[in-house]
Amino acid sequence: MNPEAPIRIEDDGAVRHLILCRPAAYNTINIALRDALSTAIDAADDDHAVKVLLLRAEGNAFCAGFGLDWSTFNQAREAAEGGWDSMRDLRAIGSYAAAFSKLHSCSKPTIAAVQGWCVAGGTDLALNCDIIVCGESAKFGYPPARIWGVPEQPWLWVARIGLQAARRYLFTGDEIDAAEAERLGLVWQRVPDAQLLDSATTLAHRIAMLPLNQLQMHKLVLNDVAHRSFDPATSRMLGCLFDGVARHTREGVDFVERADVIGWRAAVDERDGPFGDYSRRR
Question: In which element (H, E) is residue 10 found?
């Protein structure tokens, strides 16, 4: 097994664990993680011995969003120099959305077990799963909604928590703690962190008691309702397009230029400081 692989795969009977294993980087998203996740989902979907996929993460965070040391930063530089191509950007960010959406579109049930940060791009991962179980430490939200981003698949927010709540949290970018996430229906269940793995695994094995074809039929008919209600393909296209636009508005370019001067962490702290949440919370 490659010790530097961003995802580790473990089988537990008919449950396949897909484990994000970049804990020192808060399991932030990069190209390698995108490609490894896409390949792992395809392989699990093709393996008749696998009935359920359980997505979980090592460390104190499920996923703190996209890494800021890769191509997104370079694309932002291009905008400042007048070289941004919206269609190229759409294809680039769309490749991430397409990979994450496999958690929704694959034929088998998917469960996310979330602890700690699940913010920004991390929500694009978790919300694509069929069921989310979270620990008490879980924190959700889309802080780039304030400056520099739009969710890649906005329909997932509406489907999970309803239109009004989606507006409330995307209009502010505010943080959602585990208790509020459970109340809103963003997650199915909130449990103590020490019980998170056992709770998610127990649910996965209970689901796996059904025949695979039954699970696939249930997922197909339920996804059909979601597709007719929310038009995921159009939502994904618009989300990715406007995510690019948000990163290349005057405010977005100013944000990047400020980060160039004071560093990314400090720029994010400046953005979120007036709201008193995420990294600025006591």
Answer: strand 7-12
